[in-house]
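I would love for you to help me understand the pair of lines that follows before we discuss the fold together.
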Amino acid sequence: MLDASPFRSALTDAQSRVEAALEAGLPRPTGPEAPIAHAMRYATMGGGKRLRAFMVIETAKLFDVDPAGADRVAAAIECLHAYSLIHDDLPCMDDDDLRRGQPTVHIKWDEATAVLAGDALQTCAFALLADPATHDSAEVRVRLVASLAQAAGQHGMVGGQAADIAAETATTPATLADIEHIQSLKTGALIRWSAEAGAMLGQADAAQTRALTAYATALGLAFQIKDDLLDVEGDADAAGKRLRKDEAAGKATFVSLLGVEEARARALALAEEARSALAPFGAAADTLRDAATYIVTRQT
């Protein structure tokens, strides 16, 4: 069982390490800016699976990267991810009032605080990456900053979100290819970056980087398919958020287009594809292989 595996220990370790890095890296709630700092910490320190942080830390281990630098990069991707969730929950987006079983930021404070806290978390992510404490090489730090900007922006997560919104009001129904493209940007871009970050920190060769990109590309798609399955089959209390939104809105998803059983089979096949991509790393990548299994068998 994965619960008793080295993967579970590695995930727990990554969660502890990134929490410590976030505690050190996030601004303290003092002075007139305290409400924003409180909201940033509330959104970022509120738990979560920390899979993106885990992927940074575990891929960095493949190249014997300094753990302190890897932890800062893991904190950066969690700040970026938290910003995206704050904004995704706003009334102008998904209009959600629960996240991880707690009120969303705009519900606990207000919409202006949520927007500003998200903006500040985004800039905090890049500040963490650019700091010399992250890596001795300025070239490596620039690569991390530039690649995360690409993964998070118009040609990555933000572009995917925009395409997802457009698909909801399009005159023609979204196809499976449309959904795969949208999710490769909206969800997949940051997951790919999380795996590639370890290679950047370790100054890996092109073949090693390609292997991690292939792994994370398959993993990101499997992750989204599993999310779509959980939206249909999951338990809202366990998930800590509202479910069955997509079905209620008539939104095209992997489940609506493929059906439950075919979507599940596709996720399992992608997990196997991800595991196979790690062949160049041998047993050193076993925890990353187990992560693929976890992603398609998780219940939240």
In short: The radius of gyration is 18 Å. Residues 2-297 form a domain with the Farnesyl Diphosphate Synthase fold (CATH 1.10.600.10). The CA atoms of residues 15 and 50 lie 6 Å apart. Residues 206-233 form the longest helix (28 residues).
